Amino acid sequence: MDDASQNLRTPANFMKDDDVSQECKNLISSLPSEKDFTGRKLYSYQGSWYYPNTLQAILNFQTHFQARDSDIILASLPKSGTTWLKALAFAVVHRNKYAPNLESHPLLSDNPHNLVRFLELDLYVKNQCPGLEELPSPRIFATHMPFQTLHESLRDSPCKVVYVCRDIKDVLVSRWHFRSKLVSNYSLEDIVEEYIKGVCFFGPFQEQVLSYWKESLVNSNHVLFMRYEEMIEKPEAQVIRVADFLGCPFTEEEKQSGIVENILELCSFGNLSNLEANKTGTSTCGIPHHGFFGKGGVGGWNNHLTDDMARKLDEMVEKKLEGSGLKFE
Ligand code: PAP
Q1: Quick one: signal sequence residues (predicted)?
Q2: Which of 176, 178, 246, 329 lies deepest, with the highest CB count within 10 Å?
């Protein structure tokens, strides 16, 4: 086992079950449960599967979080482009404080997950009141929760939610690479079955994608729906879209000055993945920084999934999304 695998084998706090209140234990006893790929128990709450400590963190969040209208929440499924979106949103929102070509830009010395922290995987794990009211506006947070669970805590705040999704086949292969370092003999067949059944951490996946898609259609000022593939294809247009949505559009002068290109370069896979800060160390949510970077890009699944696996996944997605207007080519 290499150092990287050793690092990844230590379970993060959110995967454990050692910090659960009596109230949460009572709730858990009433919830459907299944085992994950390591044999750990997952529980289904409000339509999604969680480990006990994550569930406790969600309850903490739902009870104590006070949304501000200026809040920004970046939402996604794991392995869908979260790290990239965190970096881009941070760079866009704080561009007046930190010019993207600044030698001391925070993204050059820290991992995006430490600059934009997860609510249920980090801030509210083992902490009912993480002191968020002291943070200056605009606050930027991240989540992997589905919209209905997030929405309950926002209590109708018109804050901004940016959701990024990615072709499930690339998500699956990305997750498989990551998990293969955690568990030996973890086959692609296993993970395909898991995805089709929908019983996995934050699954079932298409339900979550749909929860944000539907909200983005009816409440487009509140939820922006983005796709990793479009970010790869037309990064400039997508960053401009994010800035417009967040209420901090680029001025013509800024565009002329090349700031959009500078932000894209700063947040590019090549730049971030080669930084010492992202090659070493562990994020505040307990995942080694290097675990957030694979090869990046679109269609990598083609080198791993058989035609049969790809067909099964495509059929499942098509069936789930039928009639929603959302399509994955
Ligand atoms: P997380 O759930 O662990 O936070 P997330 O950031 O959502 O992961 O997704 C990781 C994927 O985004 C990886 O894809 P891969 O496994 O197919 O390679 C990772 O390489 C890719 N990624 C990370 N940073 C960037 C970036 N700056 N630009 C493009 N892709 C990126």
Answers
A1: none
A2: 176
Ranges under pLDDT 50 in the chain? 1-2
Rg (CA), the chain: 19
User: Which helix (H) or strand (E) covers residue 272, if one does?
Assistant: helix 269-273
Q: Check if the beta carbon of residue 289 is closer than 8 Å to that of residue 111.
A: yes
Distance between CA atoms of residues 30 and 51, nearest Å? 14
Count of structural domains within the chain: 1
DSSP assignments along 9-62, one per residue? HSPPGGG--SS--HHHHHHHHTS-EEE-TTS-EEEEETTEEE-HHHHHHHHHHH
Tell me the two tokens of residue 185.
Answer: 């003999």
Kindly report, residue by residue over 138-158, the tens digit of the pLDDT: 999 999 999 999 998 898 899
pLDDT computed for residue 181 by the predictor: 75
Structure tokens at 199: 């019983």
CA pseudo-torsion sign 84, 86, 89, 90: negative
Annotated catalytic residue within 94, 113, 144, 290: 144
CA 273 to centroid of ligand 1, rounded, Å: 10
The pLDDT value given to residue 10: 78
Closest ligand 1 atom to Cα of 78: 2
Q: Is residue 29 part of a domain?
A: yes
Residue 327, in any domain of the structure: no
**What type of residue sits at position 3?**
D
Residue 329 is assigned to a structural domain of this protein: no
Ligand 1 atom closest to the CA of 170, numbered from 1? 17
Q: Say how far apart CA 71 and CA 80 lie, in whole Å.
A: 22
**Is 328 inside any structural domain?**
no
pLDDT at residue number 4: 52
Q: Which residues contact 188 (CB under 8 A, 6 or more apart)?
A: 173, 176, 304, 305, 309
Q: For residue 81, how far is its CA from the centre of ligand 1 (angstroms)?
A: 5
Residue 233: domain span: 3-321
CATH number at residue 171: 3.40.50.300
